[in-house]
Each structure stands twice: as structure tokens, then as C-alpha cells.
Amino acid sequence: MSAMERTLYAVPSAIPMVALLGPADGHLRIIEAAFPTLTITVRGNEITFHGDSDEGLRLESLLNELLVVIRSGQNLSSELVVRAISMMQSIPQEHPAEVLSLNIVSNRGRSIRPKTANQKHYVDAIEENTITFGIGPAGTGKTYLAMAKAVASLQAKEVNRIILTRPAVEAGEHLGFLPGTLSEKIDPYLRPLFDALHDMLDQDAIPRLMQAGVIEVAPLAYMRGRTLNDAFVILDEAQNTSPEQMKMFLTRLGFGSKMVVTGDVTQIDLPSGARSGLKVIRDILKDIDDIAFIELSARDVVRHSLVGDIVEAYGRFDHERLMAAQEQQQPRQLRPSN
To answer: 181: burial class by Cβ within 10 Å (0-12, 13-18, 19+)?
Structure first.
């Protein structure tokens, strides 16, 4: 059992205590809830905590990480404090400041950064590999972070254009059944990609870049027969590709290009019985260098906290259904006849 200790932690005078502890000590309340075995008191720029020595060391590490985040120029928020605590609890050797202070791209005073350790691993994989697969549930930042890396690559002149594509299949609908012109039919499927672009680029710049061919947003079918050189190419909603479409897309790769493929294998909208290209691709490409597969989970959901709970609940439900189906398929033991 760990010894009980009293630790005095001095916050540098250059950092206002409100920046660390939050307005009305909101961040301090979060920290106290996360370290219930410690008694924490604040006087001036000194924080004293008394209790379990191991917990005291963990709290000291957390405070050090939060100070690094503040020094990076970020305003510490309750959400960031919660995420930093969660990272240190789930992966003790992780340094939250390395994750939370990594700036991918900035626009209009807003910086886009990973918010979980796994998201940072995903961003690092995109940087280090030619083809990266980001697989996980809704809200984990798969597409958003890939878009941010694409914009950053374009701004750094590492690529000459960005190509965003999706299979035009969703919720059992097909383009032919929707009213309007081809452009109007395509719009609902590509709208999320436009929304992300608007967060990362000036509103006036997007039409100009699209007209010049620097940014292209098109259905997956438009990729057939092309070779994509010097481009950052993102295939979104890849769970709705067939194995043949996935092969077609990946073989478009040209020189000086990167590809990111994102999808959620639990939300497949293909017709019943059709195979998902995203489901089988890992077995096909698992031994090839310069290709990374990153799995994101409910812990990486960065939308409302309820979204993570919903994703986990569905995961448990699907697992229980699968186990029940497997039990029904087991051959029954026949009783020996007398």
C-alpha cells in the first residue's frame, strides 16, 4: 500500500492560476473528482495535495501536462482537462500535452488538433505512410482529421490538389431515386466533406480552389480510369464500397500522392448480402509496408459524451446478438439411447 504524503506544487508566476484552475475553479473541481483519495488545497500560486503518494505523483504529472498545454497558447477548457485525465488513466505512459498541443491546421484563429491519444496516432500514421485506413465509429474524427492533414499538406505545397470522394450509397438509397440534377443528387452525400472544408479554409477560397481543380469533390465512380499524382486523396464512408470498388480506388494511386480511407464497418448500407470492401481489405494488405490501419473506438468520440455511450451500447448489443446466434448454430448433444 502506498504511503501518505504531502506535496507542495508551485505554479510559475507567469501563468495565472485561473488559466490552470478554470473560472470559479471549474477545472479544479474536475481534478478533485478524478483524484478522490487526495485532499487538494490552493493558496496563491501553490497547490498542496495530501494523501496516497502514487496518486500524488499522478496529479503532479497531470499538472505538468496541463501547464505545457497552456504554454502552447491554448486556453485550457473543461473538456481538455477531462481528456488529459482520461489519457493518463487509460495509457499511463502517454503525455496528453503532446496530443492536445499538436496543431494540424489553423484558420480564422481556430486550430484543429487531435483530442485523444489514438487520434494523434492516426494523424502520425497519415504523416508517415502513403496509405492510411482510419476505421471506427461515428464522431471519432476519422474524416475531419484526414481533411485537416490534406489542407495542411496543400498549404505546405507537399501536394498540388485535394481529392475527396465517397461511394454514392447511403441508407439504402441510390442516386437514381433522388430528384434533381446530378449535382443536386450528389450534394447530400458530399455535404459533410464541404462542411469540414469550411472549417479549415476561408469561405471565399473554396469555390475558387474548386474551379481551378485544386480541390475536387466527386462520387467514387468518377475515379475510375484515372491516375492521381501529387494529390491528397480521401475516400470517406469506405464501408459502402464493394471489394471491386476498393481495389479500383487504391490502384488510382500515383506518384507524390497520399491516400486516406475512412469508414465504420458497423454502419454498412450496402444491399443485403453484398460484401464491404473495407471489411476484407485488412486481410489483403496486412503485410504490405507503407500502409497503416488505425482502429478508433468509442473512447475517441469527440462529439457529445452521449455519442460515445451510444456507440458502446450498440457494440454490446451487437456482440450479444452475435453470441446468441452462434449458440443457436451449435449442434445439439443427442442423448444416448437406452
So the answer is: exposed
With DSSP H G I counted as helix, E B as strand and the rest as coil, what are the percentages for the chain, rounded to 5? 50, 20, 35
Other C-beta atoms closer than 10 Å to the C-beta of 220 total: 22
Q: Starting at the edge strand that comes first in sequence, how are the strands of the sheet with 258-263 ordered?
A: 215-219, 161-166, 231-235, 258-263, 131-135, 291-295
Helix axes of 277-285 and 243-250: crossing angle, nearest 10 degrees: 60
Structural contact between residues 62 and 52, judged by C-beta atoms closer than 8 angstroms: no
Query: Does the predicted model carry a pTM greater than 0.90?
Result: no
Residue type, 265: V
Report the SS3 class of residue 277.
helix
Say which DSSP state 228 is in.
B
Of the pLDDT bands very low, low, confident and very high (cuts 50, 70, 90), residue 67 is very high
Residue listed under C-alpha cell 446530378: 182
Number of Cβ within a 10 Å radius of residue 298: 18
pLDDT digits (tens, 9 = 90+) for 273-331: 889 999 999 889 988 999 999 999 888 887 655 666 776 787 788 778 877 777 777 66
Cα 233 from chain centre: 17
